[in-house]
Amino acid sequence: SCTATKICIASDSTVAALYLQEVVSVLRPEYQVDSFVFHAGEEHKNLDTVRDFYRMLIEKHYSRKDLLLALGGGVVGDLCGFTAATYLRGIDFIQVPTTLLAQVDSSVGGKTGVDFEQFKNMVGAFHQPRLVYMNMQTLSTLNNELFTCGMGEILKSALIYDAAFYQWLGEHRHEVLARDHEALAHMVRECCRIKSEVVESDPTEQGIRAILNFGHTIGHAVEKLMHFTMLHGQCVGIGMAAAAWLSFQKGLLKDNEYQLILELNRYYGLPDHVEGLRTEDILQAMASDKKASDGNTKFILLDRIGHAVIETLPIASLKGAAESILKEETAH
Ligand code: NAD
Q: Across all residues in the chain, what is the average pLDDT?
């Protein structure tokens, strides 16, 4: 928006220390630039932080023609996006995602929101950013764990939608893990294309958008049962292994396709099993998920690499899939 006179950069403490000055220095001098920095961490993605943000915007007389800029990972993007969606009934915002996950997932699709008490993303709004700017250089400061988490969502996008991209991820594994900028840029671009094609064909989540939940049904259950000690992307990796197992058992995937999925997950650092959980608890956790009803859940399967199908399945029928991730893969 070129009529804006003020820009407020929202960031967390970690990202602000790394990149805030650089972003400020490239903004045109005619803007009044402010910053709102909060402590890094999911536990600060809540309404208290939003309240502090509103207060600052009011004190500094931000009007509807001014602009917010989210500089950071998914936490900053969700919180700043939600503030932009609700302040003065909605003002423009720009996303500058700095984690791999935020670049390929949370900055695409227009979902914004915060956590409420123990409920994740319970309060939110759909609000599209005016612009998403990504710089692959920011990924060089990301630790391996966070990088792997982003890879979970990337492998997922390829598996549900694009066999050629999945093949590319196999062939360019060395460049990607070495964080070669060109490889990263290609990968992020492909992934954003996939997510936006899926989202655009189903903006309000009536049908096909559900395929983006591949790996998430069992993944969420594991995440909850492990009390969030494992990162989201790792749990999605485990969930994808379970969903691939079931797809293979149902005769939808061939054995070599199933093995390839496990192999590439492993290569990119994603776990394919989890220790210390019980099958019954996984089934129970799925039954209490907000997406389940009457003992059934929408489950995403693959009928080949690059193509997903949505099925409504009784949770009890997911016993084998849950068991498949409780021990190390022994099929080799
Ligand atoms: P995050 O924003 O908390 O970032 C993870 C950590 O990395 C933080 O400590 C952060 O300070 C640090 N960090 C960020 N960029 C960095 C960089 N370039 N170098 C070094 N450190 C950096 O979390 P995330 O993994 O980016 O995103 C997870 C959040 O995204 C969750 O809250 C989730 O609900 C949300 N999400 C939203 C959507 C959506 O559609 N809106 C989709 C997926 C996930």
A: 94
Please list, in sequence order, all residues whose beta carbon lies within 8 angstroms of the beta carbon of residue 34, skipping any fewer than 6 positions away: 6, 7, 8, 9, 56, 60
The response to whether residue 111 sits with its C-beta less than 6 Å from ligand 1 reads yes
DSSP H or E run through 93: strand 92-97
Task: State in Å: Cα 193 to ligand 1 middle.
Answer: 20
Ligand 1 centroid–CA 175 distance in Å is 23
Q: CB burial class (10 A; 0-12, 13-18, 19+) of residue 293?
A: exposed
Residue 56: closest CA among 40, 71, 38, 74: 38
Q: What is the pLDDT of residues 106-145, one digit of tens each?
A: 999 899 999 999 888 999 999 999 999 999 999 999 999 9
pLDDT at residue 178 tops 50:
yes
Q: Looking at residue 331, what is its pLDDT?
A: 47
- pTM reported for the whole predicted model: 0.92
Closest Cα partner for 195 from 306, 118, 104? 104
Give the distance (Å) from ligand 1 centre to CA of residue 98: 8
> Cβ(97) to ligand 1 under 6 A?
no
Q: What is the pLDDT of residue 332?
A: 42
Cβ–ligand 1 distance for 74 under 6 Å, the answer yes
The β-bridge relationship of strands 111-116 and 119-126 is antiparallel
